[in-house]
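Hello,

Following up on my earlier ticket. Below are the two sequence lines again, exactly as submitted.
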Amino acid sequence: MDKIQLGEFIKSIDPDLEIKDGKQFTEVLVPSSKLHSLATQLKEKEEAQFDYLFCLSGVDYGHDLGVVYHLRSTIFNHVVVLKTRTSERENPQLDSVSDLWKTADFHEREVYDLLGIKFTNHPDLRRLFLDNSWGFPLRKDYVDDINIVTK
Amino acid sequence: MEEKVKNITTDEQQEYVINMGPQHPSTHGVLRLVVSLKGEIVKNVQPHIGYIHRGIEKMCESITYPQIIHLTDRMDYLSAHINNEAVCLSVEKALEVDIPDRVKVIRTIMSELTRIQSHQLWWASFGMDLGGLTCFFYGLRDREKILDIFEETCGSRMIVSYNCPGGLMYDIHPNFQKRVKDFIKYFRKILPEYDQLLTGNVIFHERSKGIGKLSLKDAISYGITGPSGRASGFSCDVRKHEPYSAYDRIIFKEILFTEGDTYHRYVARIEEMWESMNIIEQLIDNIPDGPFAVKMKPIIKLPEGEYYQRVETARGELGVYIISDGNKNPYRVKFRSPNFVNLSVLNQIASGFKIADLVAIGGSLDLVIPDIDR
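Thanks for your patience. The regenerated structure is below:
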């Protein structure tokens, strides 16, 4: 499917979703409550078959925390980008997609480690690189007086 | 006495846990594997990583784009040139700069030389993991020849930093073409020796065939790319699917197998060395004339937006995801590193095999630890 067909296809799954035509890929802004059901449909519907999650990144947007999912279909070779956000900074929670794509297991642990986003239903959510005494370094409000020199 | 015997039988049925690493010759760096064993059989492998986590993604947020290139060398230091290229390509794509043909061709040749030297070092250490010490000397001896070419042209042997946004740091050395051709001539004779030494070895076959099988479905689900993924039949070569630099103008084949065991991950890399030599031979006599770099603005600012660039490193697909807010520093940079993803499959494919096979499986995934930790 090309970008336009892909946009129409996602509209047919859920007409409320906001679809942005990015420079490279079709981008879908998903509310965090709908994320898992949309991801399941994108993976399992026969005309989509997004079976390869090639990148999962956590982003601190300043006010919100978010996660960006880059999905590709190895059969049709089309790409879609899902973006979800949560405005909760104290105890941010999102649904895990590690039951759909196993690669999400490590990626989500990394996001949890560096941004502090908790993934519900994750099989083994522990910190990956750092120990528990650290804060969440990739957040924009992270302060480290010793190692980060601010001008 | 009777009680003692009883205890022994219960102990044999118990699982016990040992640490492999952080300092262990077969983990190729500071990787700690917590291995649950039942007798000699591996039941579970949990990788513990982060010993050399430097926070490269965080560092990138406070430096400029040309500076980021020098950090990417330090991720996968064996694919340093290809990592540099990934950042350069995404900056060039964002600014819509047209790159001279000369740059594209030189970048491709350098990338393939990088791939060969990376596979040579892998072959050397993989042989050593399995007890063949000669491989180590053969592999490193031939790798020196490529590093000498790098030294002459880039000024550095491993951490080359030869790319910059808009082209290359400096033009190739006048000897470059001759030395590369000499190397190809030499290595075409030497590579069959690798096969004689290890590929046809019966002990090697026993230790690698059928060990650590990875199915196609799992390879896609875990996102295993590079030769490890292609050995399972996952067609994931970025050079074929999304050609960058000069890959769209040359003929080469993607190495694919369906077996997905340790042996075929090995053969895939050996075949890739042949394929890389073919690519270099197609280009080395046809380096177009022209400038070696486009003049860029002294301060590079990317337009607001998001950019994703994939390249094929020696170990798989490297993705660079840049979010820019229009400043000279990126807002967020994410490196989708191939080793980080490839490591996640270790538990899946090593469970059920013996602990000696874990060494073979780990070696066949070709892990580079700084790329996992970033």
